[in-house]
Structures are given as C-alpha cells and as structure tokens.
Amino acid sequence: MKVSVIGGGHGCYAAAIEMVEKGFDVTLWRRDSDALNELSQLGYLNVKDAQGERRIQIGSGQDQLSLTSDLSEATRQANLLIIPLPATSHEALAEQLGPLLCDDQVVFLPPGTFGCYIFQRAMRKAGNHSRVAFCETGTLPYLARKHGPNKVVISGYATRLPTGVFPSELSEHAFSLLRQAYPSVEPIEDGLSGALMNAGPIIHPPLIIMNAGPLEHFEAWDIHNEGTQASIRSVTTALDNERIAVREALGYQPSHFPLADHYASDGEEWMYGRGAHGKLTDSGDWRENIELHSHRYMMEDTRLGLSLIVSVGRWVGQPTPVAEGLLNIASAITGKDLYAQGRTLESLGLDSLSPEEMRQLMTHGIQS
Fold first, then answer.
1. Cα–Cα distance for residue pair 74/256, rounded to 1 Å
2. From residue 296, how far is each of 129, 201, 204, 219, 292 by CA, in Å?
3. What is the pLDDT of residue 264?
4. Sequence-ordered list of residues with C-beta below 8 angstroms from that of 229, at least 6 positions apart, any chain
5. Which of 26, 106, 274, 307 could lock onto 19 through a cystine, CB 3.0 to 4.6 A?
6. Which pLDDT score, from 0 to 100, does residue 77 have?
7. Low-confidence ranges of the chain (pLDDT < 70)
8. Angle subtended at Cα 216 by Cα 213 and Cα 222, rounded to the nearest 5 degrees
C-alpha cells in the first residue's frame, strides 16, 4: 500500500515513521521546503519510544521515507492519505487537495473536528466528483513530540481509535484499507459521530482556561501534571458529559469513550490504553510555554472544537452550558468572538437541515 503523510508536525513525523516500519511505501509532504531540505540533508529520522531508539532512512527504496514538497505528487501516488494536522489548517489545505483526489482514495484525519465535511466540500467545489472516503477519529494516534529537525519521541500509541467515515456509504472500503495502517480503528456511525469523539475540545479548554494564571506567570507549565487537579477534572467531566449527551441526542450509540476512562486504572480502556496519562506526564514533553492567544489549544480545540459541540447541541436541542461558558471565557481572554469564528453548523451552512437531511448527508455526502 502507498501512504502519503501530509504535514510536518509532531504527529506527522510519528505517522511517517510508523508507516515505514509497517512496510508501506511512504511519502512525507511538507509545505516548508527549507525544513524538508534540511531533513533530506540530515538523511534520517530518529525515533525514540518504549522499544528504544532507531533510525528511519530518508530515500526512495524499501524501508525508507520519501520526501516531497509537491502536493500533487504526494496525492497522486497514495491509496491512503494521513493528515495529522491541526484543524486550523483544513480550509487552506482542502482547497489545494480538493482537485487532486481520486476514486477509492481514503483520507484519514486524526482527529478532524468535522474536517471530513470541509475536505469533501472543497473537493466538490473544485468540480471533483471522485468517490473518496474521509475518515475522522477521536485522537492523534500518537503521544509525540519533535526534539529537533529529525528527532521524534513517541510516549504512547493509541490502542483504540473510534472512527467515522464520510460519506458513511464508503465505510466498508475505507476500513478495509485503513485497518492495514491502523488495526486499532473501531467503526462508528459516520463522520459527525467521529467529530464528536474528538477528545481535544474536552481535555484542553478546561486545562488552559483554568490554568491561565500559571501559564502566563511561569516560563513553562505542565497542564497535564500540576495543572490537572480535582476541580479541573470535575469541569472536564461535566464538559464531557455534555458531549456525550449531544451524541445521545443525535442517536449515536455507546461506547462514547468518556474521557474519565483516560485517567482510570480500571473499567473500559480508553483510546491510549492503560497508564497513558502517567506516560504523558513522566515524559516531561508537555511542560511547555502555551501562549493563550495563539496556541492550538485555544485556536483549534476551543475556537473550532467547542464551537462545533455547542452548535450541534443547539441544532439538536441539547443544552451545553459548560461548553458555552468555557467558550465565552476564552472569548474574553482572547478579545475575539470565538463562536462567531468557530466551526459551527451555522458557518458550514448546515444549521437549516432537518434531522433526516443530516442523516442523508452523512450517508451519501455532498451530491452536487
């Protein structure tokens, strides 16, 4: 299978490494040609995880990683495109990618914040009517951080990836291909169900907003270690209960992957398996400087992620007071109306759909 990884972030490098190690023909695309040239000159990617340290060679042969800054080249040759980029990149990337996609390709957005709709809409707008499956899951498959231009530390791998496909009528084909790369994917109803599995808008907004003082005071602060206290966890649980209530109001079935399972030592296994929170805090990689006005936890998980949950809740008639409250406080912090700037059903032009029309859209996709 030919796999293209789109992007140059932490998760992108981790995905490229894992796909090469699984024996696929892998190409990494980056827009930043200077960073790509630097990586090419270094000649390898170094990875460190629980199995130790090793190298992935840069090149075009077997067990090597190919590099390109040509999006057309990266797209043309791929059966599977993995896009582990922040949702803030989706609109611009979807416009570039839309004309290039072909029949039977699978696009994986881990996670997506309803990016599946953004990408198919861009494809249709470009006049491209190819049968492409866009898949969304609940989290990035890796707890990963880059430690330089060619070194990646992976603290953990996802063991369960609840994944929805848009349009859902392409699910059988999508999962037959996607499981080759990620055996941990678990089918759920559709792309909107996948979007409402996204853990980022649940875990990150309470952590940054309720740790705003330490984040602004200290040079670096670990929101997952010192920043995760009982009072904050209670807000996170209440917020997650709202997400689950919205899912239930839409008719989506369990498991809803409650975030409380991420912290628990027993019960249902969460997306990263047992002990993942301890691995995350022990690594020290999340002791960082988070600038509240520009960090992706604010611009992606709060502005886009929370606004989506709130808007879907309004559409289906399920209140989300904690999500709305956090979004309002975040708007006060940033001085911006984050709901108005958000990824909402209103901004996507979907708020006037009836429940049946939404089901038809999720099943068959955009028809014109």
1. 34
2. 32, 11, 10, 18, 9
3. 87
4. none
5. 26
6. 85
7. none
8. 80
Q: CA dihedral in degrees (288, 294, 295, 300; nearest 10)? A: 170
Spatial CA neighbour of 190 closest among 214, 212, 163, 158: 163
DSSP result, 116-170: HHHHHHHHHHTT-----EEEEESS-SEEEEE-STTEEEEEEE-S-EEEEEESGGG
pLDDT of residue 62: 82
AA identity, residue 248: E
* Strand boundaries in the chain, DSSP class E: 2-6, 25-29, 44-49, 52-58, 64-68, 80-82, 106-109, 133-137, 142-146, 151-157, 161-166, 185-187, 221-222, 287-288
Q: How many CB atoms lie within 10 A of CB 38?
A: 12
Angle formed by the axes of helices 230-249 and 307-316, nearest 10°: 40
- Alpha-carbon distances, residue 16 vs 57, 58, 182, 242 (angstroms): 11, 11, 13, 35
d(CA 230, CA 83): 34
All domains in the chain, ordered by first residue: 2-195 (3.40.50.720), 200-364 (1.10.1040.10)
Angle made by CA atoms 185, 300, 164, in degrees to the nearest 5: 25
